[in-house]
Design a protein that fits this description.
By secondary structure, the protein is α/β, with parallel strands linked by helices. The chain contains five helices and 14 strands.
């Protein structure tokens, strides 16, 4: 066999292998679950009102992306004074306060709450917060968080997905549930994890640490 023929065959094999590798990106890629319970993000002004002027939130546990769970908790109040106590505050402080709850929580509070990405609170539900030093009424700011997956750029490359892409994710257990409209969020500060609220996790028999599969 001529050397040029060997080179051509080698080139064809390499191209075929590369194509197969690209096609398999994301195939069977699994992500660990983090079940996100109801919580509150507070502005500096609202921290002052709820806990006292100049109060500093106390860090309890580090979370991804520079966030952390705080020692502090508040009570959230909906229509007809229906309330849920001991709702965890997350830091650091934000420009505007935001409350994230489940649909079941919304029913208990008697309010209509939209499904939104964190930070998208324009026109969202009104809610009141009560702390040890005062109360705050938010005309908007209460949402049900859109399910999403945090990952690093390297994770995204391996999974074959990109920032803001929507994917489907499968729970391969006795419940056999598939979630559609799962948003990919990519940042160097993230740790690979899919965030579900308590309603979504309970419906599928899923707990924090379980792994789910991205479907392409």
């Amino acid at each position: 066999m001529e050397s040029k023929d060997v080179a051509l065959i080698t080139k064809m094999i390499l191209e075929a292998l590369e194509s197969k590798e690209n096609d398999s990106l994301g195939e069977g890629f699994t992500v660990p679950v983090g079940v996100s319970a109801r919580h509150v993000h507070l502005s500096r002004t609202d921290v002052d009102t709820l806990f006292g002027k100049g109060y500093q939130l106390k860090k309890k546990k580090e979370l991804m992306g520079g966030q952390y769970a705080c020692e502090e908790q508040v009570t959230i109040v909906g229509l007809k004074l229906r309330a849920i106590e001991n709702v965890r505050v997350l830091g650091p402080e934000r420009t505007r306060s935001q409350v994230e709850i489940s649909k079941t929580d919304a029913m208990k509070l008697g309010i209509q709450v939209p499904v939104r990405e964190s930070g998208d609170i324009a026109g969202s539900a009104a809610i009141a917060l009560v702390g040890p030093k005062g109360a705050v009424y938010l005309e908007e700011g209460c949402i049900v968080a859109q399910r999403h997956i945090h990952m690093t750029p390297k994770d995204a490359l391996i999974a074959g997905v990109s920032d803001n892409e929507m994917v489907s994710v499968k729970a391969d257990n006795e419940r056999g549930l598939i979630w559609n409209h799962v948003k990919i969020r990519v940042d160097d500060s993230f740790t690979l994890e899919m965030h579900l609220d308590t309603d979504e996790a309970n419906a599928a028999g899923i707990s924090t640490g379980n792994r789910l599969t991205i479907l392409k």
